[in-house]
Design a protein that fits this description.
The radius of gyration is 14 Å and the shape is globular. It has 2 helices and 5 strands; from the N terminus they run αβββαββ. With about 110 residues, it is an alpha+beta fold.
């Protein structure tokens, strides 16, 4: 299976504006932002989508959410933010590599989508 764009960014084959990187994930700014703050929290280990995770993925999934919380503090997002995970084509999943969208600095609406 060919590398996804995220795998190429993780491998530093193509440039990206990186906000955070650790041994488990990379956080980058979305190139088509839907909010003033639009980050993508991407696990370094490829997981295709949330519906294909296993119990063994629990620590990684938890880490992604903890990183979101750390970024919220770092970026002063105390007014709120939204986390979104798209799963499959009907949810507008554009890259088959799990990633969490972090959107902030604008008023969100409900219901989403």
């Amino acid at each position: 299976m060919p590398k996804t764009i995220f795998q190429r960014i993780i491998d530093h084959e193509i440039p990206a504006k990186i906000e955070h990187e650790d041994e488990h994930c990379i956080v980058l700014h979305d190139i088509q932002p839907q909010a003033p703050v639009h980050l993508l929290i991407v696990p370094k280990r490829r997981v295709v989508r949330i519906s294909e995770t296993a119990v063994s993925d629990e620590p990684l999934l938890g880490h992604l959410l903890l990183v979101a919380g750390l970024l919220a503090k770092k970026l002063n997002l105390q007014e709120g933010f939204r986390l979104v995970i798209n799963n499959g084509p009907h949810a507008c999943e554009s890259v088959p590599h799990l990633h969490v969208h972090m959107l902030a600095k604008r008023q969100m609406t409900w219901p989403p989508g």
